[in-house]
UniProtKB/TrEMBL annotation:
Pfam families noted in UniProt: HATPase_c, HisKA
Domain annotation Histidine kinase: ranges: 215-424
Group of enzyme by EC: transferase
Protein name: histidine kinase
Cellular component GO terms held in the UniProt record: plasma membrane
E.C. designation(s): 2.7.13.3
TM spans (from-to): 12-30, 126-148
Annotated SUPFAM superfamilies: ATPase domain of HSP90 chaperone/DNA topoisomerase II/histidine kinase, Homodimeric domain of signal transducing histidine kinase
Catalytic function, reaction form: ATP + protein L-histidine = ADP + protein N-phospho-L-histidine
Length: 424
């Protein structure tokens, strides 16, 4: 819900509540005042009649027959409400009446009970006019509140909307901090100042991290390559042919440097993915089916060594995907390597590619644990494996980078492990 809608809703609730309370109090107040005025009028007429009777005069003739009623039978005394039929309009009309006992003028005469009445039609008309006026005032008030909020949203909240639009279009890879202006509203000015300071710090940290990543990738990869080359030369030295123990130690050192080199490359790739250091301009249309066939061809020796059968099903023609070529190749490589490494001799790998998804299914032993943890860094299903355990994590980060969905499923029938990448 937008802020304007939320504030307007609270304003309307408060206004309607206060209006309802004020309307009720005003209605009750008007009703009490008008009835009190009618009762005072009836009471004055009672005093006037009693004075006339005390002087021995006859009762005054009422203006209308319904305004005065005399009875020899006892009647309830005091004020009360009643309804009388109006013969002209043929409808019941509310009256306020006052009944009192009139003592006889002569001692031998019997007392009588006099009822004075006053129509309340005028009172109801006045109340109707008051309620109508209140309804009109409510409509004008609510309309004014809504119009005022919209005007405030366009005028007073314009700096906030500008700040929000700037934040949505901000790209940290441009290495430029935010340059938000200082509006006249103090709160918005403080917000923009804090965002400017935050963006400057982000640019500095991002630049430092980018330089560290590039320097680390360059400065550590070169010594590793030199160590690997020297160890390869040492393994071919004639002196090691006669010393089996020394040859084993050098071979273990060479394997360790290879593993360290792969770990270094994987962590560098993950860092660049997390920091969005792959520029969108580097993405090009990639024919994923052709890249997949090329990758499968390169893996033929590994498939034969592990005695794994791979079948590829690609629906032609497939539209190209706009990806970074290196990331696309890394995605396929990690998924295929994962399916081959966690297989068993005589197993199968089935690859399905269409315009909606890439699905890689392989046989293999059942795995234990939470499937969501399989994408964590350094998560190994086999502790003795020389793999760093970053393949699925890299695949997940590449999918997240391009907005793809990736999920894992296991089917007990045939012990099938399935990794599915959803393009759409």
């Amino acid at each position: 819900m937008k802020l304007l809608a939320a504030t307007t809703r609270y304003y309307l609730r408060l206004t309607v509540g206060l209006f309802a309370l004020a309307s009720g109090l005003l209605y009750l107040g008007f009703d009490w005042a008008l009835r009190n005025e009618v009762e005072e009028l009836l009471y004055n007429r009672q005093l006037h009649i009693q004075k006339q009777v005390a002087r021995g005069l006859a009762l005054p003739a009422p203006a209308f027959a319904d305004n005065l009623d005399r009875s020899r039978r006892p009647q309830p005394l005091g004020f009360s409400d009643t309804l009388l039929l109006d013969p002209v309009e043929d409808e019941l009309v509310p009256y306020r009446q006052l009944t009192f006992r009139l003592p006889p003028a002569k001692a031998a005469s019997a007392p009588e009970w006099v009822t004075l009445r006053k129509s309340l039609v005028e009172t109801e008309d006045v109340l109707g006019v008051v309620v109508g006026v209140l309804v009109v005032v409510l409509a004008l008030l609510l309309g004014g509140v809504v119009a005022l909020n919209h005007w405030l949203a366009r005028r007073l909240w314009a700096p906030f909307q500008h700040t929000l639009a700037t934040l949505r279009g901000y790209d940290l890879q441009r290495h430029q901090p935010l340059a938000l202006p200082t509006p006249t509203i103090d709160e918005f000015g403080e917000l923009n100042q804090a965002l400017n300071t935050l963006s400057e710090r982000l640019v500095r940290d991002y630049e430092s991290l980018r330089q560290f990543t590039e320097n680390a990738a360059h400065e550590t990869q070169t010594p590793l390559a030199i160590i690997q080359a020297k160890l390869e030369q040492l393994l071919q030295a004639p002196a090691l042919q006669d010393d089996e123990q020394l040859a084993t130690l050098v071979g273990d050192a060479w394997s360790g440097t290879q593993r360290l080199s792969r770990l270094h490359q994987s962590l560098t790739l993950l860092t660049r993915l997390e920091n969005h250091q792959f520029a969108p301009a580097q993405a090009v249309p990639v024919q994923l089916d052709q890249l997949l066939r090329d990758r499968v061809a390169l893996l033929e020796p590994l498939l034969e060594a592990r005695q794994v059968l791979l079948t590829l099903h690609a629906d032609p023609p497939l539209p190209p995907l706009v990806l970074h070529p290196g990331l696309a190749d890394s995605l396929l490589q990690n998924l295929l390597h994962n399916a081959i490494k966690h297989n068993h001799p005589g197993g199968r790998v089935d690859v399905l590619l269409n315009r909606r998804m890439l699905e890689i299914s392989n046989t293999g032993p059942a795995l234990t644990g939470d499937p969501a943890q399989f994408f964590e860094r350094f998560r190994k299903h086999n502790a003795a494996s020389d793999s760093p355990g970053l393949g699925l994590s890299i695949a997940q980060h590449i999918c997240a980078y391009y907005g793809f969905g990736i999920e894992y499923a296991f089917t007990q029938v045939g012990n099938r492990h399935t990794l599915r990448v959803q393009f759409t």
